[in-house]
Amino acid sequence: AKFHGRDNFHFFNFQLHKDADTRMALEVELRRAVQDKEFTLFYQPQIDFATGRILGCEALIRWKHPEKGLLSPYFFIDTLENNGLIVPVGKWVMEEACRQCLIWREDGLGRVDMSINLSPRQFADPDLLEHIQTVVNKTQLEPNQLEIEVTESLLATDFDYAVTLLEKLQEMKIHIAIDDFGTGYSSLSYLKQLPLDKLKVDRAFVMDIPNNNDDKQITAAIIAMAHSLSLKVVAEGVETEDQAAFLKSLKCEIGQGYLYGKPMSAEAFAQLLKTERSL
Ligand code: C2E
Ligand code: CA
Ligand code: CA
Ligand code: CA
After folding, report:
1. What is d(CA 218, CA 224) in angstroms, rounded to the nearest whole number?
2. Interface pTM (ipTM) of the complex?
3. 55 alpha carbon, distance to own chain's centre
4. Angle between helices 213-228 and 241-249 (to 10 degrees)
5. Is residue 8 within a helix (H) or strand (E), and if so which, with residue range?
6. Ligand 3 centroid – CA 239 distance (Å)
7. Rounded mean pLDDT of 58-63?
8. 7-11, 83-87, 233-237, range with the lowest pLDDT
9. Are 120 and 154 in contact (CB under 8 A)?
10. Is the beta carbon of 60 within 6 A of some atom in ligand 1?
11. Using a CB cutoff of 8 Å and minimum separation of 24, what contacts does 21-29 make?
């Protein structure tokens, strides 16, 4: 009992203090990073299970930190979301990903579908739709080449508003995927109220296939339900041939994961396209 009380309080307080300091330092650094344009996009291939060919990719942000090297979004995306910097950074992601699509096309690499993550905060930006339209026009992208990935958390705050925006995106012929499916708290009933094209099964369900029977059952149920709603299914985090075979047996349409390629630079992705498309 002696050790509890004050000592613990100090320890706890210190931790709290340290965390607040770290958070503050990260914020300051992120503001600088936005100004100095230290972000870059990596691209992870998405594979058509039926043909084994590359359909497109998901754009994933990285921070080229001057000292710490390439940082994963796990270190900074929440902070960007909380302080609102995700709005300008997200606009840059949209521009950069679409610009990259144009470059690949001009380099004769063919059609590449592009999936882009949009966070809930970006949906609160009144310029969102106009900005997307401008980028699509400028890069002469086929709107149906572009896919927006949204998570269930988008629907938590203002469901009706989210639906209205998604419907406008659908009118623009942009595809919509529900990301990380199965990890949120939402009920399944909302799915049929949304103008969705695809559902992405979260990696958490895929990773222990084929050993975990529960995960196999859940994955099968999610895929069957998606198909009954006429949604295509993307399986995330496909790492093994066994997982791919199981997913294919369930008529899952698209695979994404280390088995087909880790997120990579635009140059590396272009090389992969050249090889697979025999260009
Ligand atoms: P996410 O949208 O679920 O993206 C998939 C994550 O899983 C990526 O992590 C990817 O590298 C990782 N992954 C893909 N295949 C495999 C696999 O086979 N095995 C394993 N272990 N991991 C795999 P990443 O790139 O670190 O991104 C993390 C999250 O950050 C993303 O999760 C997404 O929520 C967010 N994010 C990334 N880029 C952006 C962006 O431009 N805007 C917004 N708003 N969020 C982004
Ligand atoms: Ca995603
Ligand atoms: Ca995901
Ligand atoms: Ca995920």
Report:
1. 10
2. 0.97
3. 16
4. 40
5. helix 6-35
6. 14
7. 98
8. 7-11
9. yes
10. yes
11. 23/79, 26/75, 26/76, 26/79, 27/79, 27/83, 29/65
pTM for this entry? 0.93
Tens digit of pLDDT for each residue in 75-132? 999 999 999 999 999 999 999 999 999 999 999 999 999 999 999 999 999 999 999 9
**Gap between the Cα atoms of 74 and 109, Å rounded:** 31
Per-position DSSP letters for 148-210, written without gaps between them: EEEETTHHHH-HHHHHHHHHHHHHTT-EEEEEEETSSS--GGGGGGS--SEEEEPHHHHTTTT
Q: Which of 78, 82, 117 to mutate to test the pocket of ligand 1 (most atoms within 8 A of CB)?
A: 117
| Lookup result for tokens 């914020």 | 27
Tokens read off for 88: 């300008």
Q: What's residue 191's pLDDT?
A: 86
Residue of 42, 60, 265 best suited for mutating to test ligand 1, as the one with most atoms within 8 Å of CB? 60
Taken as a whole, the chain contains a residue count of 279
Q: Looking at the DSSP assignment, which residues form a beta bridge with residue 147?
A: 115, 175
